[in-house]
């Protein structure tokens, strides 16, 4: 009987350790090749979603003048709770901002590319923090002044009192720019994890998740972390304040949507599944929305508040996934309007609210019908916003920098999805008195 040798041949040793050495590098190479390929394939429907959602923000803020929720300028006649306008705005409020944040996450995926963490943060500083800082001192004061015009002789007389307390009791605020601040904060939060988000391990996790999402209504898996965050934090932070320090339930909500977008819209397997299931998600969105605006009013307020909090993530996810599915099916097309509008959405957002507030401040006093006021304020605000952007901001690099745009150059490289911050959206500021019950009974 031959003696069994305990010596392992060197060839077997090499073959044993080669996979351990090569596999991580192979996974990394696969991920980078996949990233480069996805970035070359521009997903035009994401741009169209961004454009349409920013227009919905504009119309939402027009509606804020005429509904019963607290805002910076109000018409003398407003639509109360359970009116047609109330239902429309409650519905829009549930999903348009979460979807915009989800698209922001996707935009970060496409914008990230091979940037280092510091390069990524530098770009976020330029595209987010600079417009925020400038806007707080130029775009916000007009809105605060209009709301508190009885206390000041002019806009200039407001500035010396700008730092006297925090809005709404005081004068300092970031108003509609709060979302830019939140998005910048989210960028800081995820920056230490960028290498992991581009790793082979994360890509394997995404692959497993894609199998779940491909199942019927499997996209609802993203509701789970949203529900957990709200169950844990809503008891301590019941209202969406947009004030950062006392708004952690909403901030956690946004972070989850941001990461969901980073995963969902960066992988064609996810979006193809959503396209196939778009009608199923539309049915789900309809059921959840009807439940949201009816059932909480049929039970005691405490239980109604809890049910409202539980239904909100389902409405937001189902409406968002429905929109993505239909957009990929019908809006994945390119034309000149898309390119022009996609570049304009960020400065349009920055400008639109102070212009609406300024225009409405004068027009709500006119002795005309409510319908006439709606049309006049909408058309005038839209025309002014587009005109200021087109003639005063777009041509000049200094203002393009301030408004978060790329600099004009003789040769423009191929565009990529790096306009994630251009969907600076915003949910309207609902006053504590109107939002204290979470569903405005």
Explain what you see:
The protein has helices at 10-40, 44-66, 84-112, 117-138, 140-147, 155-158, 178-190, 194-197, 200-213, 223-233, 248-264, 268-276, 278-292, 301-330, 336-363, 370-393, 397-402, 432-435. It is globular and about 60 Å long. The N and C termini lie far apart (90 Å). It is built from 18 helices and no strands. Residues 1-24 and 411-441 have low confidence and may be disordered. The protein is mostly helical and 441 residues long.
Helical segment count: 18
The H/E string reads HHHHHHHHHHHHHHHHHH
Protein structure class: mainly alpha
Number of domains: 1
Assembly classification = single chain
Instruction: Describe the sheet with the most strands.
Output: none
Averaging pLDDT over every residue, what do you get?
86
Principal-axis shape equals globular
Helix content: 55-70%
Low-confidence stretches: 1-24, 411-441
**Beta-strand proportion:** under 5%
Number of strands: 0
How far is the first residue's CA from the last residue's CA?
90 Å
Cα-atom radius of gyration: 24 Å
Task: Provide the fold topology.
Layout: H1 10-40, H2 44-66, H3 84-112, H4 117-138, H5 140-147, H6 155-158, H7 178-190, H8 194-197, H9 200-213, H10 223-233, H11 248-264, H12 268-276, H13 278-292, H14 301-330, H15 336-363, H16 370-393, H17 397-402, H18 432-435
Helix pairs in contact: 2-3, 2-14, 2-15, 2-16, 3-11, 3-14, 4-7, 5-15, 10-11, 10-14, 12-14, 13-14, 15-16
């Amino acid at each position: 009987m031959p003696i069994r040798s305990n010596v392992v041949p060197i060839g077997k040793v090499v073959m044993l350790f080669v996979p351990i050495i090569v596999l991580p590098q192979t996974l990394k190479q696969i991920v980078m090749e996949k990233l480069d390929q996805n970035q070359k394939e521009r997903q035009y429907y994401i741009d169209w979603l961004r454009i349409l959602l920013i227009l919905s923000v504009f119309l939402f803020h027009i509606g804020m003048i005429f509904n019963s929720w607290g805002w910076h300028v109000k018409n003398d006649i407003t639509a109360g709770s359970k009116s047609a306008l109330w239902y429309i705005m409650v519905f829009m409020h549930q999903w348009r901002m979460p979807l915009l944040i989800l698209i922001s996450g996707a935009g970060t995926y496409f914008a990230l590319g091979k940037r280092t963490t510091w390069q990524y943060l530098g770009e976020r500083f330029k595209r987010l923090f600079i417009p925020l800082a400038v806007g707080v001192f130029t775009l916000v004061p007009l809105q605060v002044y209009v709301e508190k015009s009885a206390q000041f002789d002019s806009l200039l007389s407001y500035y010396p009192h700008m730092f006297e307390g925090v809005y709404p009791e005081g004068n300092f605020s970031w108003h509609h720019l709060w979302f830019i601040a939140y998005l910048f904060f989210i960028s800081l939060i995820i920056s230490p994890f960028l290498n992991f988000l581009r790793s082979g391990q994360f890509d394997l996790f995404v692959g497993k998740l894609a199998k779940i999402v491909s199942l019927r209504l499997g996209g609802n898996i993203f509701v789970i972390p949203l529900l957990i965050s709200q169950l844990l934090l809503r008891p301590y932070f019941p209202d969406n304040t947009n004030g950062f320090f006392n708004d952690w339930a909403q901030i956690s909500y946004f972070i989850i949507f941001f990461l969901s977008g980073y995963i969902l819209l960066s992988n064609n397997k996810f979006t193809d599944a959503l396209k196939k299931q778009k009608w199923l998600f539309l049915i789900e969105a309809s059921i959840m929305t009807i439940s949201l605006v009816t059932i909480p009013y049929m039970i005691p307020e405490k239980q109604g508040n809890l049910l409202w909090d539980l239904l909100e993530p389902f409405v937001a996810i189902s409406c968002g996934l429905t929109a993505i599915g239909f957009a990929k099916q019908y809006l994945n097309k390119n034309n000149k309007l898309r390119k022009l509008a996609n570049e304009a959405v960020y400065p349009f957002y920055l400008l639109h609210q102070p212009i609406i507030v300024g225009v409405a401040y004068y027009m709500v006093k006119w002795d005309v019908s409510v319908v006439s006021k709606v049309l006049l304020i909408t058309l005038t605000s839209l025309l002014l916003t587009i005109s200021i952007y087109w003639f005063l901001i777009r041509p000049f690099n200094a203002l393009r920098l301030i408004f978060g745009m790329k600099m004009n150059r003789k040769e423009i490289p191929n565009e990529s999805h790096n306009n994630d911050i251009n969907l600076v959206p915003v949910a309207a500021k609902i006053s504590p008195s109107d939002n204290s019950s979470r569903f405005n009974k």
